[in-house]
Amino acid sequence: MDSFIVFLILYTLFIIFDLVPSFKKEEKKVLFFSIPVYILTFMLDTMFSFGSNLVNPNQAITDFISSVFHIS
User: Fold this and answer.
1) What are the structural domain ranges in the chain?
2) What is the DSSP string of 38-72?
3) φ and ψ at 12, to 5 degrees?
4) What is the band of 37 on the pLDDT scale with cuts at 50, 70, 90?
5) How far is CA 52 from CA 4, 12, 18, 48, 65, in A?
6) How many whole angstroms separate alpha carbon 61 and alpha carbon 57?
7) Mind telling me which residue stretches traverse the membrane in this protein (predicted)?
């Protein structure tokens, strides 16, 4: 729960100092990239802070490389 509060404070600062000026300048390309990235990372941080077991991509990548190059 403590990490969720830290994430919430940091994302509030990100929105104030990054997204609000982009809205004011009407930088649509920046906003089309920034908003989905912020939403995705906030969701992942929220899941992490409440103890969700996220999938470790390292094992999937290792298995894929092993199967492609026939490494045992």
Assistant:
1) 2-69
2) HHHHHHHHHHHHTT-----HHHHHHHHHHHHHT--
3) -65, -45
4) very high
5) 13, 23, 28, 5, 27
6) 6
7) 6-23, 30-50
State the Cα–Cα distance between residues 3 and 10, nearest whole angstrom.
10
Tokens of 38: 């912020």
Who has greater pLDDT, 70 or 9? Answer: 9
**pLDDT tens-place string over residues 39-69:** 999 888 888 888 877 777 788 888 888 888 8
Q: What type of residue sits at position 16?
A: I
Residue 36 confidence (pLDDT) above 90: yes
Q: Cβ distance 42 to 11 under 8 Å?
A: yes
The token duo for 29 is 């390309």
**Which pair of structure tokens corresponds to residue 21?**
């000026």
